[in-house]
Amino acid sequence: MLEATVKQRAAPGSRPLIASPRNFWGGIALLVVSLTALWLVSGLSGMRGYTFGAGTMPRLIIGLLIALSIGLIGMGLVIKGASLPRLALRGPLMLFAAIIFFAVALSSLGIVLTSFFTYLIAGLASKETRWGEAVIAGACMTVFCTALFYYGLSLPFPLWPSL
Amino acid sequence: MTDSIYNLGMGFGVALSPINLAMCFLGALMGTLVGVLPGVGTVATVAMLLPLTFGMPPETALIMLAGIYYGAQYGGSTTSILVNIPGEASSIITAIDGFKMAQKGRAGKALAVAAIGSFVAGCVSTLLVSILGEPLTEVALAFGAAQYFSLMVLGLVLAVVLARGSVVRALSMVALGLLLAMIGSDLESGAQRMTFGLPELSDGLNFSVVAMGLFGFAEIFRNLEDDGVDRSVLTQKIKGLMPTWQDLKSCFMPVVRGTALGSVLGILPGGGATISSFAAYTLEKKVSRNRTEFGRGAIEGVAAPESANNAAAQTSFIPLLTLGLPSNAVMALMIGAMMIQGIVPGPQVIEKQPELVWGLIASMWIGNLMLLVINLPLVGIWVKLLRVPYRLLFPSIVVFCSIGMYSINNSPFDVIMAGVFGLVGYVLVKWDFEPAPLILGMVLGLMVEENLRRALIISRGDTSVFFTSPLSLGLLLLSGALLILAVLPSISGKRNEVFVEED
User: Fold this and answer.
1) How many residue pairs bridge chain A and chain B with CB atoms within 8 Å of each other?
2) CA nearest B21: which of B339, B363, B304?
3) Phi, psi for residue B319 in degrees, rounded to 5
4) Is residue A55 in a domain?
5) Do B189 and A45 touch (CB under 8 A)?
6) Which residues span the domain enclosing B470?
7) According to the 3-state scheme, what is the secondary structure of B462-474?
8) In this structure, are residues B187 and B450 in contact, taking their beta carbons and an 8 Å threshold?
């Protein structure tokens, strides 16, 4: 969806329909979130007399959010504003991958290997990474984290892969 | 008065115990260390280091967190002055004149004045917290559910008004935060709300996980795009740390004014520290004899916002300790930490756990003193750290934060959620949606619900209860007025003024 919105911005036109894409698409995104939430809380009980049900407060908030997102969409159509920013893909996605790798690998691979490989995967996020120094720095970081978290704070995760 | 001296004495007794002293020092040191990293703001630092405190007893944990908080603030100022990368809104102002001073070879003086100004401000406001804490707690005890609800509305509105940019956008962030707070079991009925059937979500989204993602990871994602950092100042040798007599004289009044302004603004729920540095800078620019120098390296332009910032940081503990209301994102994290320790923040804490509260207040002062000691002699080390290229730092930060997130509950799920919120935060920041109001909304969400619920039960469904109590009515009227003022375009033009001045 992000890619699509970026392309939208590039479309030429003398008078753009969307005056402020950040407000407009922000409003759309919030509207999607609130409608999803509304559907998710649909099974929860509402007001009983003057007592709140489990779903009352969420629905109140969702109502507010829907009103605000419609406001944002309206503003986006009328008031001129900044165009959509260019979102970097490589950096955030590689870092995200590193974080996910860490989460999945830690309990089976152990802290030493997981830290080291997480460092290297994160290194993929930047064009500037030089692999020689990254391996050395990653090793140092691994030693530091193992010493601090495993030996120092004795957090309960394995040191090495369990066979 | 004698009471507060007695209480403060008790506080020092707690704070000066070897373990607490050591943890306060360690916190301040770690806070500075992480806060110095370019682009890592105070909130991100506190969020990253929060897990370190989980295994500790409550007093020690909170004292260490306070140390981390102040350390992070000093670290942020150091980075703003030396490389002009403010980690967050409140140090943008310091960067204006601080970096200009550094370019003129006066980096040492700027750093020293920032530290001394903050220390003076810290001393005054610590005293203020200890004097005001007790009476305000009594006021707080008079708050019923309806008044609490209205106060929280005011807090959220203030967060919106003080946020950068569009009011509607900030409001929608608050609403999104409130909605996120609803995830998990309903407190009353135990019904699962928006949990997707995941057992990991039945206790709700972990607050520090969301904060870590929105502020920590998102920050790194965004920083990867910034190159072209001016590191020229770092190649010079930082010398002339001691300000001259003339410097001290010209800074005296700015520090006093900054402290006063910051102390008052910090008490307001809803974002004191950030606005206080802007306010102090703007005020100084109006009243200073030296006003033409502002923006070109005026020492007053560093002294005033830095003192204001620190004073506000201190007094923002007042609403936290007396009402259990966080006034900014860092205080929100503190509340999260308190809840993890099993402490429900609010007026009862000061009665039931006086050692905790007064120990915290005393350690604020000690933390300030430590920072003066850490920051000035160790400036050489921070400079070396700033010379480490970012390409080596960011993977380390990712590894460090991931371990930290994992260690909260030994849960891979938390790490994944932090990553997801990192992406969310990145998109939000790029689209000019500020994440700070979201965090405040998320922290207050359940309290808002509980008090609204309770107020309506007590009044038997009569919604006029919010308008018949003078206190509640006053708070709501104030919120409404602020919101209207903020929406008026002329005012919002003024709000942005201070931000425009940076270039």
Assistant:
1) 199
2) B363
3) -60, -30
4) yes
5) yes
6) 2-497
7) CCCHHHHCHHHHH
8) yes
ipTM for the whole predicted complex goes beyond 0.90: no
Instruction: Determine the 3-state secondary structure of A51 from DSSP.
Output: strand
B127 assigned to some structural domain: yes
Q: With respect to residue B502, please indicate whether it lies within any of the assigned structural domains.
A: no
How many domains does chain A fold into? 2
Q: Which residues of B touch A107 (CB under 8 A)?
A: 412
> CA–CA separation, B458 vs A57, rounded Å?
17
Full pLDDT tens readout for chain B, 503 residues? 567 777 778 888 877 888 888 888 888 888 888 888 766 777 778 877 887 787 788 888 888 888 888 888 888 888 888 877 666 666 777 877 888 888 887 888 888 888 888 888 888 888 888 888 777 777 777 778 888 888 888 878 877 876 667 888 889 999 999 999 999 888 778 888 888 888 888 888 877 788 778 877 887 888 777 654 555 666 666 666 677 777 777 788 888 888 988 888 887 765 556 677 777 887 888 787 777 777 777 888 888 888 888 888 888 888 777 777 777 777 777 877 887 777 777 777 777 777 888 888 888 888 888 888 777 778 778 777 777 777 888 888 888 888 877 877 788 898 999 999 999 999 998 888 888 788 878 878 888 888 888 888 888 878 888 888 888 898 899 889 888 887 775 444 544 544 433 32
| Residue A91 to residue B407, Cβ atoms within 8 A | no
Type of residue numbered A88: A
Element (H, E) at B185: strand B184-185
B48 contacts B34 by C-beta, under 8 angstroms: yes
Q: What is the DSSP letter of B376?
A: T
What ranges in B328-469 are assigned the alpha helix state H? 329-340, 347-352, 354-375, 379-387, 390-409, 412-430, 435-458, 465-468
Number of domains in chain B: 1
Distance CA B483, CA B487 (A): 6
User: Residue A20, SS3?
Assistant: coil
Question: CA B308 to CA B254: how far, in whole Å?
Answer: 9
Chain B residues with CB under 8 Å of A58 CB are: 179, 182, 193-194
Pick A54's closest partner by Cβ from B189, B196, B462.
B189
Among B168, B405, B416, pick the best mutation site for testing chain A contact (most A Cβ within 10 A).
B168
A67: containing domain: 6-78
